[in-house]
Design brief:
The chain is an all-alpha fold. It has one domain. It contains five helices and no strands. It has helices at about 15-20, 25-35, 65-70, 85-90, 95-110. Helix 1 packs antiparallel against helix 2. The protein is elongated and about 45 Å long.
Length: about 110
């Protein structure tokens, strides 16, 4: 299961904690992400069934990639004719697995 931006949801601690009802993982992730990203997070904020579902982590609700893919009616950024846009290119720099996933999809799209 992948997010619009190519991130593997099955490796995301918020997704994992939600699916397994792991309150300890929610607490650990809230602390870590709070420190790493300067966010004020509470464990109860960490709920997500994946960005293509109804129940999305609140921080991801403002994700520009979700809005763009929904507007273009595509399943992920790799299907976009503008792939990779400047914003996605910057976002993917520390996420090589997500980039590889989207690159493969885009290459199939352009044939």
């Amino acid at each position: 299961m992948r997010a619009y931006c190519g991130i593997d949801c099955l490796e995301c601690p918020v997704f994992i904690a939600t699916q397994t009802n792991d309150e300890r993982l929610k607490e650990e992730t809230a602390k870590k992400w709070g420190k790493d990203f300067g966010l004020d997070l509470n464990p109860e904020d960490l709920v997500c069934d994946g960005c293509q579902s109804e129940r999305v982590f609140y921080f991801c609700k403002t994700c520009p990639f979700i809005a763009c893919c929904e507007e273009k009616n595509i399943k992920n950024c790799g299907e976009c004719e503008d792939y990779p846009c400047e914003q996605l290119d910057k976002f993917l720099k520390p996420l090589p697995d997500a980039r590889t996933y989207l690159d493969k999809i885009h290459k199939r799209m352009i044939g």
